[in-house]
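thread: overnight batch results

M.L. [08:02]
morning all. the overnight job finished for the chain we discussed friday. pasting input first so we're all looking at the same thing
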Amino acid sequence: MPRHAILVIDMLNDFANPKGALYCQGSARIIENLQKLLKWVRDRKNEGKDDVQIVYIQEAHRQNDADFRVRPIHAIKGSWGSEIIDELAPEKDEYIVQKRRHSGFAYTDLDLYLREEDIDTVVVTGVWTNVCVRSTATDALARAYKVITLSDGTDSKTPEMHKHGLTDLSLFTKVMTIEEYIKAWEKGQDPWVGAGDQENKVE
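M.L. [08:03]
and the structure it wrote out:
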């Protein structure tokens, strides 16, 4: 049976709070959806099922980080801006991976953690679809994980950015809604089946 990790990417005050330094308007559209998803995972765990896990990816920059050469200062480690929003607060046993680059895999222990937990499928959620979500998904594929993108669990600064991000992700991941994802599990199906663009149809 597959083992999945739901990656909640950068749902932080600086991205998902209107007062944040790099507020991403699309974050407001997915908070409620992600709450539903996380509740479903936690309910499964309470039933003794551990085949779907929650992992938080938290941007946590150093002062004068190289990222600030091209983007405004944001998500400084230890600051309010780097904190995960209250609406999606982790529970005590849910793993948090701090990163300083777009990808959750870049110079972090995410890959080590996933391999220790025998995870074979990475499910990406959060913001921004076309930046950190896409970068994390790309690096997951490079490490031979199966990848799923939840279309209503990801978003970006504009609907256009989100749409273009999903188009790119559809080339190598399974793009589906949260409802479709949950229903597949409840039917005993592997949600990842049918991923990618093997017939080269995406334009």
